[in-house]
Amino acid sequence: MPRTSPFPEPTIPPGARRRPRRRALALLAMLALLLAPTAVAHGTLVLGSVTLTPDPPRPGASLVITVDLATTARSPVEGAKLSGTLVPANRPGATPVALTFQEYKEPYGTYRASFDAPAAGTYTLTVRDSTYKNEDTTAKVALQIGGTAPNGSLDFTFPPVNTGSRSVVRWLLWLVGLPLLAGVVVTILVLRSKRGERTVEDR
User: Fold this and answer.
1) Alpha-carbon distance 121 to 89, whole Å?
2) pLDDT at 43
3) Count of CB atoms within 10 A of residue 1's CB?
4) Whether the Cβ atoms of residue 128 and residue 136 lie closer than 8 Å to each other
5) Largest CB tally within 10 Å, which of 48, 95, 157, 194?
6) In 88-104, which positions are buried (b, 16+ CB within 10 angstroms) versus exposed (e)?
7) Of 166, 157, 171, which Cα lies nearest the Cα of 71?
8) Would you call 25 helix, strand, or coil by DSSP?
9) What's the angle, vertex CA 189, arms to CA 188 and CA 192, rounded to 5?
10) Whether 40 contacts 190, CB under 8 Å
11) What is the DSSP secondary-structure string of 103-124?
């Protein structure tokens, strides 16, 4: 006669078998968020905006020019190397005011340059992105120093920059490697959950 255990067999709750799969899906989502690359510099179209503090600027007073960069999907663009020049709009051959932008950790994709504002007038601000060697790209906006009307947000666009074959290979690794890694993690979690269920049933 087969032996009967004096202890009742453990019962598995109806939703218990689904929990490992839910945990696997949650872990997959977390893994995708952790490994998803942020936009660094740009190999695609980038949207930029320039704001001035104070606005309108006062001649001879401290002026902060802020540049915000984002992709067309509104993701902030980090790691760009920005510089700029400011020249009078009616004297393009005049000695430009050189600007160096510093990246700020928060908010992401924000770059600022501080200097003393020149004399009142209309100026052309040229923003240069030199993140990639020999692949500079520029954008220009017109701004007013002095007066009573604020400049507001001055929008511009950076065209795509050819980042070379290394960047293409890197993106291919992300596109192919991330799904493979996520699939391995999910498979391992599902196999472990099945082993646990079999162990409980064997008892």
Assistant:
1) 8
2) 59
3) 3
4) yes
5) 48
6) beeeeeeebbebebebe
7) 157
8) helix
9) 85
10) no
11) EESSSTTEEEEEEE--SSEEEE
Per DSSP, the three-state class of 183 is helix
* Cα 103 to the center of its chain, rounded Å: 13
Asked if residue 195 lies in contact with residue 176, where contact means CB atoms within 8 angstroms, the answer is no
Whole-angstrom distance, CA of residue 5 vs CA of residue 101:
76
Longest dimension (CA), the chain: 106
* Low-confidence winner among 10-19, 30-39, 80-89 (lowest mean pLDDT): 30-39
pLDDT single digits (tens) 148-197: 999 999 999 988 765 554 444 554 555 566 677 777 777 777 777 666 65
Calculate the alpha carbon distances from 181 to 122, 166, 198 in Å.
55, 21, 26
Q: Which single residue is written with the structure tokens 């993701």?
A: 75
Inter-CA distances, 124 with 68, 89, 149, 152, Å: 18, 5, 17, 15
Both tokens assigned to 148: 């009573």
Distances in Å between the Cα of 137 and the Cα atoms of 14, 48, 78, 96, 100 are: 60, 13, 16, 18, 15
